[in-house]
Amino acid sequence: MSTLDPASPPTGELPFFVYGTLLPGEPNHDLFLRGRTSGERAAVLHRALLYDGPGYPYAIDGHGRVHGTLLTAAPGVYEELLGLLDHLEEYLGPGHPRNLYERVVREVELPGEEQAGKGQPEEGTPEEGAPGAGTVRAWVYLAAAAVTRSLRTGGSVIDGGRWVTRRPPGGPRTL
């Protein structure tokens, strides 16, 4: 995965990679996504780390991977969904000093059919180059620069890069 040039914005409607409270079963999924997506699929963001936050996670660039879901906007609601997610993630524009997250374009991996049938890939699944459905470009909300600095110096990494593993089935999230 490479960091794509932010000076040349993507064309077309990119899907969104989500990894926290927007995941299926998490509280913001129904609030923000119900009726606004036409597809949801397990995906993996390589070269990233997941950190615990105050009730929600942060992803940053790093030597690891983050497991999440690739969302495709339903026809006719892309701009609405983009605005809702920017507002939720406190994204005011590229490099804005009050951003909580930066919205960036990244390559995300879609697991192969043999893995997709099991849900998200198991720990130890081969990383890049493994057979799968390939990669797609997607919007990802990564922690903004000031937040990233704070996380790197005193944050708690979520081992395995899975937010949903932090919550017992049917129960509240545990720390």
Question: Descriptors for this entry?
Answer:
175 residues, alpha+beta, 4 helices, 5 strands, 18% helix, globular, disordered N terminus
How would you characterize this protein structure?
With 175 residues, the protein is α+β, with helices and mostly antiparallel strands. It has 4 helices and 5 strands. It has helices spanning 27-33, 78-88, 113-116, 145-154; strands spanning 16-18, 37-52, 57-73, 101-111, 132-143. Strands 2-3-1-5-4 form a 5-stranded mixed beta sheet. A hairpin with a 4-residue loop joins strand 2 (37-52) and strand 3 (57-73). The longest helix is centred in the middle third of the chain and has 11 residues, at 78-88. The chain is globular. 31% of the residues are buried.
Helices and strands in order:
Elements: E1 16-18, H1 27-33, E2 37-52, E3 57-73, H2 78-88, E4 101-111, H3 113-116, E5 132-143, H4 145-154
Helix count, DSSP H or I runs of 4 or more residues: 4
Which geometry do the CA atoms define? Answer: globular
What portion of residues belong to β-strands?
25-35%
Separation, N- and C-terminal Cα atoms? 31 Å
Helix content: 10-25%
SSE pattern: EHEEHEHEH
Strand order of the largest sheet: 2-3-1-5-4
Average pLDDT level: 83
> Which structural class best describes the helix and strand composition?
alpha+beta
Q: What's the main sheet like?
A: 5 strands, mixed
List how many beta strands DSSP finds: 5
- Computed over alpha carbons, the radius of gyration is 15 Å
Low-confidence stretches: 1-8, 114-131
